[in-house]
Amino acid sequence: MNRARSLDRLRAAEEPWDFVVIGGGATGLGAAVDAASRGHRVALIEQADFAKGTSSRSTKLVHGGVRYLRQGNISLVLEALRERGRLARNAPHLVHDQAFVIPNYKWWEGPFYGIGMKVYDQLAGRLGLSPSRMLSRRETLELLPTIETANLTGGVIYHDGQFDDARLAVNLARTAENLGATVVNYCRCAGLVKEGGAVAGVRVKDLESGAEFEVPARAVINATGVFVDDLRRYDEPEVKPLVTVSQGIHLVLPKSFLPGRAAIMVPKTADGRVLFAVPWHGVVVVGTTDTPLPAASLEPRALDEERDFVLEHARLYLAEDPGEDDVLSVFAGLRPLVRTGDGGSTAALSRDHTIVVSESGLVTITGGKWTTYRKMGEDVIDHAEMVAGVEPRRCRTEELGIHGITTGPAADPLLAHYGSDAAAIAALFRENPENARPLHPALPARRGEVLWHAREEMARTVEDVLARRTRSLLLNARAALEAAPEVAALLAAETGRDEDWARAQVEAFSSLARGYIFTDPASRAGASD
């Protein structure tokens, strides 16, 4: 992907695009892939970087939703389990089977959760992963050697999917482009263009140059997640809000706290949520919370009570109690939940997606979750085809391989998540031994990967590289902060920027990264970005 070329295509189109998608997270990217695969002309703009918001801040799971099964939302679980199977098939380089153990500390928990997980297996049908089963106390300790042993009676093992959310987002952007779509980051929707009261395009501001221009479209799709109401107000200033914002946070701990391959699933915490401790990229991700917030922000911060809650629950289930200094990173994400009833606890709300078409034809999609992104894309393009008045075409994404798809073993395990792109990155390592050098001793990412991100994946900033392309900020915030100057220098050389730009990039990233360090005051909610 090349931003300059994509921007030129966006501005130079002589005919209206069939669809302009606003939002470069899971939902918008899924819509762009779906539309392009049907042969429609589609452009996507994102105000920041792909997956800058919610879509890079998940629990890293491709799952049916055990909690929704408990709520009795069988239709959502069925849909999510089908989509889990499809995603595992269409992106095997990014999605893999992850074993989860529910530790049992009371006599009734084994049969209770065991039966529930058998229902979960049956709902998955032929798209299921490995079957669940009951575990003895000894088997549970073999899988979870660092679990709290007092009163442990056994466990239940089941299987779900795991993935790298931001990496999937980048690969979806490349999939869309491979299919003919035009995708551009750092382009903000500055307003809607209307003709005769109907939405006929968008006003776009290129945040790098400051230039503004209009992009005509037969239909505009609002896929901006927690920000959908901001865009809807461009269309109807007095529109009733559609979304409630809920925050979830995660703590990242060293692998030593959960050294095996299995994850822990706690089926019910004090706030009614499921809590996970999941091995991921050589660390352990623990979360999450469900905290209603009054407003959305692009860079949310964990609340003190959320941080304490997750750390307290980690101590309840791990034999060695993690301390604040053990936390490698803390990150927060916002969920767009469709407003229902009188509000109340957001933990009780479903993650079903909703599509709304305004009187002027603005198509808004919100809700949902990463696992069902493909189905959300299918549904919103079905609606958008009618709004745009274009020829309806059959959805083609159920069996569409995602960019990088490969099923063979990776020659370099540290590059496995790049899929078929790994060979080209390895060639950069061979081209210059310096390219194979790690960015930091505590991080797996190497210098040559930064070159690849700049050349092929539209990485524009130090944050793009360290927060999303490599996940370094999540894996170890302090190490990422220390790696920032080298990344800035590499990007500056690749993009023709000067030393002043590089210094500004390091300053901006340093301010952001301190918000991910558990013991840094900047990580507290309300701190300046």
Quick summary of this structure?
This protein has 529 residues and is an alpha+beta fold. The chain contains 16 helices and 18 strands. 35% of the residues lie in helices and 22% in strands.
Entry keywords:
single chain, 529 residues, alpha+beta, FAD/NAD(P)-binding domain, D-Amino Acid Oxidase, Chain A, domain 2, Helicase, Ruva Protein, domain 3, eight-stranded mixed beta sheet, 16 helices
Provide a descriptive summary of the structure in words:
It is a single chain. 35% of the residues lie in helices and 22% in strands. By secondary structure, it is of the alpha+beta class. The chain has three domains: 3-54 and 167-242 and 349-388, 3-Layer(bba) Sandwich (FAD/NAD(P)-binding domain); 91-162 and 244-347, D-Amino Acid Oxidase, Chain A, domain 2, CATH 3.30.9.10; 413-523, Helicase, Ruva Protein, domain 3 (Orthogonal Bundle), CATH 1.10.8.870. The strands form two sheets. Strands 3, 4, 5, 6, 11, 12, 13, 14, 15 and 16 form a ten-stranded mixed β-sheet that branches. A hairpin with a 2-residue loop joins strand 8 (187-195) and strand 9.
Helix-strand blueprint:
Layout: H1 3-12, E1 17-22, H2 26-37, E2 42-45, E3 61-62, H3 66-71, H4 74-90, E4 96-104, H5 109-124, E5 133-135, H6 137-143, E6 154-162, H7 165-178, E7 182-184, E8 187-195, E9 198-206, E10 212-222, H8 228-235, E11 243-254, E12 263-266, E13 275-280, E14 283-287, E15 291-293, H9 304-317, E16 329-338, E17 353-357, E18 363-367, H10 373-388, H11 422-431, H12 447-456, H13 462-469, H14 472-475, H15 477-495, H16 499-513
Parallel strand pairs: 1-2, 1-10, 2-7, 4-12, 10-18
Antiparallel strand pairs: 3-6, 4-6, 5-6, 8-9, 9-10, 11-14, 11-15, 11-16, 12-13, 13-14, 17-18
